[in-house]
Every structure is written in C-alpha cells, then in structure tokens.
Specification:
three-stranded antiparallel beta sheet; G_SEPTIN_dom; 400 residues; alpha/beta; Septin
Length: 400
Amino acid sequence: MASVTEEADRFCDDITIPSGVYVSTDMSESIIPPEVRPKPAVPAKPPHVVAPSPTAPHGPQGLGGLGGGMGYGGVADRAPGSGHLGGGSTLLGYIGIDTIIEQMRKKTMKAGFDFNIMIVGQSGLGKSTLVNTLFKSQVSRWSSAWGSEFKLPKTVEIKAVSHVIEEGGVKMKLTVIDTPGFGDQINNENCWEPISKYINEQYEKFLKEEVNIARKKRIPDTRVHCCLYFISPTGHSLRQLDIEFMKHLSRMVNIVPVIAKSDTMTPDEKNEFKQRVRKELEVCGIEFYPQKEFDDDMEDKNENDKIREAMPFAVVGSDKEYQVNGKRVLGRKTAWGVIEVENPNHCEFALLRDFLIRTHLQDLKEITHNIHYETYRAKRLNENGGLHPISANDTQESNL
C-alpha cells in the first residue's frame, strides 16, 4: 500500500499546474467556476472622432507617437478583466484626451500673446522701416501713415513702444524696443552697456514679481525675446564694434544678425559677404540664435541647420507699395526696376519673416525664459543668498 502512495505522489509532482488555475487539495470539495463579470458600458463616441480601420490590428497611433496596442486618444487596448496589454483587443471606448489641445488653445486665445523685439544698429540702416515691414503696420516709434515722406528721427534713448496686433482672431501684444544711434559716436567704447543694462532690468523686474508673496496671476513679460542686430552692408567684414557687441550680449539675449539694405550689393558680393560674416562669428566664438546646443532632436537640428546656413539674412525693408505685373507689392524703386521685398529672388526678407513669426516665435520666448532668464535668476539668487519677498506696498511704489 505504501508503494502505491509513493507512486501517486511522484505522479502529482510531475504535473505542471499553470499559473492562475485553481486546484483543490480536498477531493471532496467541488471546483468553483470563475465569476462572470458584466461587460462595462461603452460610452458614446463624439461624431468628430474617426473610428479605427478594421484592417489595423492595433488601432491608430496615439499621443507621443505610440502605435501598437493604442486605441482612441492613445489609450492602450485591454482585454476586459485582464491586467496586461492585449494586441487587437476590443476597444473600451472614447475617452477624450485629444481635447486637451483645444482646451489649451481656448485658454491661450483668451490670455493673448506677448512678443518683445529689440532693434540694434547704426542710424540710417532702416531698422524701424524693416520692423514695420515685418508686421505690416506702424509698430515702431514713428507712427505716421504709410507712405509718408517724412524722415525718421534719430533715436535719442532706449524706448519701448507697444501695440496690440490682431489677425485671424489671435491677439498679440507686440513691443518694439528701439535703441540709441548705436555706433554713431566718435568714441564708441562700451556703447553696448545701456542696452545690456536695459535687458537685465527687464529680467530683474520679472524676478521681483516672481518672488513676491502676493504675486500676480500672470506676470507682465517685458523681457527681450529677440534682438535684431543690423550689420552695415560694407561688403568687407564685420566692424570691431559689431563683434564686441555680439560677444557681450549673445549670452543674455537671442541675437539674430541681419545684413541691412542688401540691395546695395550684387548677388555675388552678398553671398561672399555672408560667408565672411559667418566665418568671423565662428572664429570669435559668437553664437547667434538658433544655438546648436538648444536643438531638441534631429528634426529640430535639421530645420535649424538650414536656417544657420542662410544667416545672416540679407534683407530689404520698405513701407511703400508699387504696381508690379498688375499686383500691389512692397518694394524699393530704382532706375532698373522695383526690388520686391517679399520676393525670395530679390532678398531674404521672406525667410526672416517666416523664421521670426511663423516657425520660431514661441521657441524664442521659451529660450528667453528657460535659458537666458534662468541664467540671470541663478546668478542673482547666488549673489544675494536669495531675494527677500516684496510686499504689496513695495510693488505699488515701484509701479509709480
């Protein structure tokens, strides 16, 4: 009898029981069947959501580029009642994660946008005219009507002029910071200091609002997001003043160099001058926007490499319209014809406009906040061991 029991024990040891299978040791106990759970109710799917193709085994791609096993809005498919991802399982229904983008759009549209641009260069290079051409309105300090014959006055101090521009229901508060007649003096030593001081003052103003105990829900942003630096079209090389200015300010603001009044050079002269300027900037270790170290991924790198190869943009600005082939165009009239500002065959104004406004405007603001402002903030907090919170009375006095 003992041998029979031993044989039975060895037989049981050889049996492999799958995980999750219930086996009773008591032969008198009956096997309990698994609990039958009701299927969850499937919520209604909004009409604007397209159902996945029946031929796609894993559903459409979800958020973040995830594909296999992803359902509506990037939700992983799960078999009902199971605790692991299942390929090709029945979708539970629409959740609505894709509406987050629309929610963000509505809130941003209500709050509006800010963009602050500084223009620096010698007098007579057409700084104000170019900015007016960029935004197709009188946004510089000179507010006369389009096509006015009056000459622009010289800038005597750093002055910020703000305008609210609206296009397609989108409102943007644009601030143009005009600078002194940069480099116009006989002695131009340290002439960049007033500009550097102004940029740091805006960082300081934002920092004080941040550390305030009762700070505003939305802190007014007066920080300089972009600095357009105008290079004189000499056709030779950069002046020492140009190099010194960009050396001192390239670490505190996004500098975008442009060659002003490029129509004064032939195409060959223009291309040679651009190559020479790029080489000088590289030799002097001057980094202009977009900086290579801030490329997020290969897509950004490939896009920004094309922009860096085209810089500095050789531009022409004009606020006058002329009739060309039956169309009204912005341009400059010469004895040989009309130089069309927005014609890429005539100048690179269209490249500059698309770059500043249509593709990199938000990135300019993010680099200003995350890099330049954070650098200033860390330096200030390390110097003072932290700023003391500002009371409401101090804030009111500073605004007076």
